[in-house]
Amino acid sequence: MDGLTKIKGSACRKRVIEVIFDATLWHIWKARNSVIFEGNQFNAGKVVEDIKEDSFMWIKYRSKSSGLVWERWRDFNVSHIFL
N or C, which terminus of the chain has less Cβ within 10 Å? Predict the structure, then answer.
């Protein structure tokens, strides 16, 4: 996590990257547990989609930015957030 504090850019940009990072760790951990404890197959595409969905929801509903649009986020085009 220390590396995240050294990211250049605005506070908004840093927060978005942190949220995506957190969602990534969370979903990798969940997928790992699913494989180990439930015997499920690892599905990278599902993990990526879950990361996109959760990071979108976490940012959309916990920030003051109302301009977040799922159609743009789905492509992971997050640059429009920083305008």
Answer: C
